[in-house]
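Narrative progress, year one. The postdoctoral researcher (J.K.) led the effort to move from monomer predictions toward full complexes, under supervision of the PI. The following entry was the first complex the group processed end to end, covering 671 residues in total.
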Amino acid sequence: MARTRTNILICGGTGCIASDSEKVQKNLELIVKARGYGDEVKVIKTGCFGFCEQGPIVKIEPDDVFYVRVGPKDAREIVDEHIVKGRIVDRLLYREPEKGKIDKQENIPFYKKQLRIALRNCGLINPEDIYEYIALGGYEALGKALTQMSRDEVIDEIKKSGLRGRGGGGFPTGVKWEITKKQVSDKKFIICNADEGDPGAFMDRSILEGDPHNVLEAMAIGAYAIGANKGIIYIRAEYPLAISRLNTAIKQARELGLLGTGIFGSDFNFDIQIKYGAGAFVCGEETALINSCEGKRGEPNYRPPYPAEEGFWGYPTNVNNVETFANIAPIIIKGSQWFSSIGTEKSKGTKVFALAGKINNVGLVEVPMGTTLREIIFDIGGGIQGGKKFKAVQTGGPSGGVLIEEQLDTPIDYESLTEKGSMMGSGGMIVMDENDNMVKIAKFYLEFTMDESCGRCTPCRIGTKRMYELLCKITDKKGTLNDIDALKQLGSMVKGSSLCGLGQTAPNPIISTMKYFWEEYLGFIQDNEHLSEEGKYKYGH
Amino acid sequence: MKIKTIEELKKIREEHYEKVNLREEGDSITDKIEVMIGMATCGISSGARETLNAFVDEIQKEKLNHVKVVPVGCIGYCHSEPTVQVNKPGEKPVLYGNVKPDKVHSIIEKHIKGGEPIKDLVLEMNFERA
């Protein structure tokens, strides 16, 4: 049997048949035969593409070109131009209103809602079977990097892709690798930060439990690029299943020589060790994480020196988050250009979010950067539970802030969320409905940061405690406007003077709820005498 | 065996392709059927282990030797755990949500043996994989 070189897929869904797709199919078949391509080009009727309003739909594979509104008369042009001459028929491509033409299916907005890069294998493979990972192309990126690319080429590819740290900071990953590579040292380390601590966030756990080899492979690629021979996965001990699957994965990778000495016949040696954390939130901060890895108390250090200069035991160390690593192998295989074609100008690729709170479809989603909060919450998340009204969404966990209805059309990227007073964070997204009291939400987060403050610096240690006390006083209806004012001042002090990110961002939930829900703070105040002076105290006035 | 070249890796990939080719498009020439069960922490805490045991028990009892149970990670549908995906050759895989052990029997009878998916339990897979 002759091997088919091209498939012409034509939609046979009810919608497309109603708009004459059967005639299009017949014409395509006739013309393909007439041109003598009957053996190598197949016309196949498929199920619905879900894009009925643009039907009939014709898709050419493997070119992945997507034609819309194809009439019976267009069949000849598609065959003569595209199939015979290999030229795309411009006028039949999908046009996004106001923007240019789009030829690839994954670029069409309807399909764009979720794109899984970091989660690509989760739920698709048995995480305890390395052969299933290999069967889907696993470890080919490592092979390609080691045998066909120099260390600089690997770094360059990651830099060009525009990948930024997915733990929340958003520092360009390629630049981080480059800085670590430039350090002169006989020993270097690469660390995977799996100390996922935001309340309600479980993106990293899912990746490690569903696709552990993905992270191991990426760590090996990173280690090759920066010149490290040892990797450490710092993971909280509360993730026993992730730990056990990682251990299995490491063992299997060693057996196949994908970890160890002379990987892929090169002179690159690399092995990975797991270190367990006790679950302190601050250990997600990289200097505290390194201290904890060394067996010291999990407290942050002053930076500089950055870990890239002096990290684990004083050696140059590169720390990346689990989700950041999960994007590496596809970038090496598919190229930086593919990756940077997804997302917004400054934030490339996709982001995984853990949807929680008063939302119908609680779960994990992975969307291209630039997707709006409204699309995530209402289209993918299925809206608010019980048909209630949306009130606010907290992004960035306890370090972030709330965003309200008017901001739902904000396209998600690092800059736009910070601009609106919240932050990307690691990907927790907690949705609140009309019945939630925002002062109590702020109190919940403050209780968390107060508990998690490591105590090293005074503003954070004492400040979070005092802020929490004030919030308790207010929600107990014993507060006055002076207390709200004190809270406000304390917030800016803690923000400005704390040593690490934990303290610097701890007041954010208070600041943002005051900004948008000032009247809820007032609602707890019984002090009628001063309420007339409200304007004096109002946040931002 | 240690893999020393990309060619060796690709050979292993081809040898094991049969293991995964059913999963995305139901593209397989064998009569093998797969039942994939989301066994991450989230799934297990919602009872996926009991569901998996129920599948294994019934498959053994019914001597359905061509049906294989595969534990997989989480696909993010926390709202509908435990999730189960049934892959049959030549058919688009079907994803089920809220599959407690009491649903296992009807999935085996109606879908795996009978060929009729149970519509009430079907979830839509609204994502593309890179």
